[in-house]
Amino acid sequence: MKRTFLATPALLTLALAAGPALAGNIDEPIITPAPAPMAAPVIIDTGSDWTGFYAGGSLGYADVSDTTAAFDADGATYGIHGGYDYDFGSFILGGELEFSGFDVEDGANSISSVARAKLRAGYDAGAFMPYITAGVAEVDVDGLDVTDTGAVYGLGLDYSYNDRVRIGGEILQHEFDDVGGLDVDATTAAVRVSFDF
Fold first, then answer.
1. CB under 8 Å to 50, separation ≥6 — which residues?
2. For residue 111, which of 60, 164, 147 has the smallest C-alpha distance?
C-alpha cells in the first residue's frame, strides 16, 4: 500500500510535467506567407514610328473661285507627293513637296496644276497621325497664261495601315493674290495613299 501511494504521486508529477509538451502551445506560431511575385510590367508597343521618307499619290476635288466671280468652277484633282517625317515621340515634324493636276474649267480659263511645298506638324496617336500643314503654292492657269505664288494651309490625317503603307486625307485652303489681276481662292479635299521607305 505504501508503495502504491508513492508511485501514484510520481506518475502524476510526470504526467503534469509532460502535459504541456504533449498538448501544444496556446500561442500558435504565425506563419507569414511569402509575398506573391510581382508581375512584370506590360510594355505596350503602339507600333508607330513615323520617321522616314514617304511618297505616293492622291485623288481629290477642288472648288475654285475669285472675288469678282469671273472664275468660279470645281472639278477633280490628282497628284503625286513625297516627303520626310521625323517622330520626336509624341510630336512629328516633316516637310513635303506635292504636284497636283487640276481638271477645273470655267469658259476659256482652266487651272491646269498647283505645286506645293509644305511643312507638317503632327501628333503621334499610335496608328493615326493628325496634322496641320502650311506652306507655299504655285498655280498655273491656262487661258490667262499666268502663274501665281500664294499661301496654302490645312489639316490632314494619316493612318498607318502597315509598316509600308499609309492612307490619309487632307483638306487645303489656297490663297492667290494676283492671278491675272484677280484674287483666287481654292479649297481642295483629297484622299492619299503613301508608301514608306
1. 85, 86, 87, 92, 94, 122, 124, 129, 158, 160
2. 147
Neighbours of 67 (CB within 10 A): 10
Element counts in the chain: helices (H) and strands (E): 1, 8
Does the global pTM surpass 0.70?
yes
Q: How far is it, in rounded angstroms, from Cα 123 to Cα 155?
A: 12
Residues 29-42 as b/e (b if ≥16 CB within 10 A, e otherwise) read eeeeeeeeeeeeee
Domains of the chain by residue range: 52-196
Q: What is the pLDDT of residues 7-28, one digit of tens each?
A: 555 555 555 555 555 455 566 6
Whether 50 contacts 124, CB under 8 Å: yes
The CATH class given to the 52-196 domain equals: mainly beta
SS3 of 35, please?
A: coil
pLDDT digits (tens, 9 = 90+) for 26-65: 666 677 777 767 766 554 445 579 999 999 999 999 999 9
